[in-house]
Amino acid sequence: xxxxxxxxFAILSAWLLTVGLTAQGDAQVPNRAADDDGAGPPATAExxxxxxxxxxxxxxxxxxxxxxxxxxVDRFRASIAVEPVDPQALGAGERAVxxxxxxxxxxxxxxxxxxxxxxxxxxxxxxxxxxxxxxxIGNQLHDLRGxxxxxxxxxxxxxxxxxxxxxQLLSFVDPAATLRALTVEQGPEPSRLRFGKDSWDATVVxxxxxxxxxxxxQKDAAPAPQARLSLWFGAxxxxxxxxxxxxxxxxxxxxxxxxxxxxxxxxxxxxxVPHVLRIYQERDRPRPVAKIRPESIEFADGLDPRLLARPGx
Length: 313
What we know:
By secondary structure, the chain is α+β, with helices and mostly antiparallel strands.
């Protein structure tokens, strides 16, 4: 079982995203109302125009921070359990890993990564250090830029993708950063979000984001360069759900939409993070793919880069 047979690291990005069980039509998003004077957002007392998105982003930031941070989060350690729900929605490699899978991940911006996946009694490690990408299967270490580059080309691409996903994870620790990175097409505005038999009053923002990391790979397709996101926030300004639609370079829909729903927020390292995450792939309707349980995460300011080097370094 090599890493080219696994795609579970993608849950790291999904973990701090969100959205649901019902089809797109169940999440009713009203049209944006024009300003009364047609001239943009209302002015402040000082005569300056307010930015509704920035004002909302500040509320979201405050809702997700237990303690204000003086510096941005740039590294983490995490232990995550993955329970595949619908193996048929995954690739052959994912189906080969039966039952619960556990991941131990360490990452330091901008590109130092090491993670371990255990399943079916075998342990696989991959990473990126100062010397490049590497892979260890059992006791065998492979240099993915050296003599093993051709045989393990897909594994090398997996590592590069996973570095991007880890960066997304850090950006979604603070959903306000995601809002500010969007090319906004609609919102923030009120919405009634229906989810299965439940519904919530929410605030929705829609827009495009470069490099969104989808959990389920689109068959026979390169990673979508951008995605159209719908993000719903609850009455407490916490992120509830996200729906992501892959787009090609021309902005055309390039695959199945993906939904993620966040549950059970708990404080960790001064931030609120979800401890249950449910992922769905939308075909004729959203179908469950996996249940993710981040059992622990540490925004480890003191994480030593030497600990992320390949074995034997």
